Amino acid sequence: MGTGGSRTTDMFADKESSVHLLAMTEKKIDKLGLKIAQQKNSHKKIQDTWAKNQVLFASIPALKPINGRITSGFGMRQHPIYKRRIHHDGIDFSAPSGTKVYAPGNGVVQYTGYNFGYGKKVVIDHGFGYKTVYAHLSKSLVKKGQKVTRGDVIALSGNTGISTGPHLHYEVHKNNRKINPSAYFFDTFAPESFLTAKPASKQNNSNS
After folding, report:
1. Distance from CA of residue 80 to its chain's centroid?
2. Between 20 and 30 A from 149 (CA), which of 1, 34, 44, 58?
3. Coiled coil where (predicted)?
């Protein structure tokens, strides 16, 4: 009797221990599943952020739009025609008529047409609050709604509108506020240098 009772007690104890172990294992599996789900979610967020940043970096107007010398900076200046001090909303590049004008970042052409003061004009919407304006052009090479990539030729410089000579007037807008374009590119880095480096970069990526 004593021996049989001990075995029964042991069996119940073993069952209780097994049930407890099973419950603990289920809890651990649940916790592990939750951690995996959290890690997947975190990994997806990282991937989404990385992808968004790649688009942002490609869209920022970081390329000099024309191969020319800056002749008038951003800010207050004596207007060459009106002969009074007014704010210059962009920068001017000296360039012969017909000089190629490049898209400084990826975007969509928002406007192409003629404006009395700006002459022939192109506006690109780069997203993320960025827009760029190109004025006094001799010719636009893009259409409204057209997608452009950094380095694409979008126009030819000229002397249209209110202008004292052939040049490109260039503006950068951020969230509808006009800002200094010089902060976004290296003046010594010609757009042609970017174009020659671009194919080499693509080839290196394909070989890696």
Report:
1. 35
2. 44
3. none
